[in-house]
Design brief:
By secondary structure, the chain is an alpha/beta fold. The protein is 41% helix and 17% strand.
């Protein structure tokens, strides 16, 4: 079998039916399968898949395993030569599945590859990125990356200076739509399950490169990606202003990532950089009488302090589910 498509769902009922119908059409005459792991959805996602898509291998988890552990579980049932990690809110363009397998066959030294992600409105999303550094974190916080999107220095992280129509070797690809040889995934024991959500694909790509594999962006592979749909359904969680990330979970994962790959100094540097920046913005807001904005910055700092404590300064992952 050529391809196993892994889809991890969480409250994805509004999206999963349409996605599976499109995937089923793409798989006609193609040697592939679909494995869905449902992370204890409350909206009937598992029941919908079970009733209307009997050809899907469904694994209904009784607890929310998160993205990393959910994909690891799905991959343990894979029969294909390649895995395609596919978010419930990412829809591959016609022909992208077969072309992705062909490109992976042509490049046996590639450990992970993805294509161009576009929003519902057709806008390009960051689809090929570089490993984060504290300098990049500062440029993002200060707004310099957004103000100077064509700068190779300020916008290094998202490579917005690069021509999105040109294939390139990069550091990492967002996990919404990526191809991975199953033997490579298993060689590296899959995702590090300490990352419940966010940073897990960055960590995996670092380990792939250390093992001698390349990470590639192929723009001829395309997918429409909504982004953040499952995050919006998490009860009592604070979502980023972009609407795509859960703030406290992003902070936890960032601390775990910096501690794992940059040591105690890296984790502390990330913590103090983000905390200091938002405390300064809180002070400025108070000086200008912007009480609501100041309170918002205070909540942000409180979440960061909680993440610092919950992860023991980036040393350990809190118990699942987060």
């Amino acid at each position: 079998m050529d391809l196993t498509i892994l889809i991890v769902t969480y409250n994805s009922a509004p999206l999963i039916g349409s996605l599976l119908e499109k995937v089923h059409t793409e798989l006609q005459g193609f040697d592939g399968e679909v494995v869905v792991v449902d992370n204890a959805s409350r909206d009937g996602t598992a029941a919908l898949v079970r009733e209307h898509f009997p050809w899907v291998h469904l694994i209904a988890s009784e607890v929310n395993l998160g993205f990393a552990a959910g994909n690891n579980l799905a991959a343990s049932h894979a029969r294909g030569r390649y895995l395609l990690l596919l978010n419930p809110d990412a829809v591959p363009a016609p022909g992208s599945l077969a072309r992705g397998v062909a490109l992976m066959d042509e490049h046996p030294d590639v450990g992970l590859a993805g294509g161009e992600l576009r929003g519902v409105d057709g806008s390009r999303q960051p689809s090929a990125r570089m490993f984060p550094t504290l300098r990049d974190e500062f440029f993002t916080l200060a707004g310099l990356s957004a103000r100077y999107p064509t700068s190779r220095i300020f916008s290094r992280l998202d490579r917005r200076w690069a021509d999105p129509e040109i294939a390139a070797q990069v550091d990492w690809i967002p996990g919404a739509f990526v191809f991975i040889p199953v033997k490579v995934f298993r060689q590296l024991d899959g995702f590090d399950e300490r990352f419940f959500l966010y940073s897990e694909e960055v960590d995996l790509c670092r380990r792939m490169q250390a093992a001698g594999y390349r990470i590639y962006y192929w723009p001829e592979l395309k997918a429409m990606h909504i982004g953040g749909e499952s995050a919006k359904t998490v009860v009592r969680a604070r979502v980023s202003k972009s609407g795509s990330q859960l703030q406290s979970w992003r902070m936890r994962s960032a601390l775990l990532y910096y501690r794992k790959h940059h040591g105690a100094a890296g984790a502390a540097g990330y913590y103090w950089l983000e905390l200091g920046w938002h405390r300064l913005r809180q002070l400025k807001a108070r000086l200008f009488g912007q009480t609501e904005k100041a309170d918002d910055f205070g909540v942000h700092c409180g979440q960061l302090n909680d993440a610092w404590r919950d992860t023991d300064h980036g040393r350990q992952s809190p118990p699942r589910p987060w």
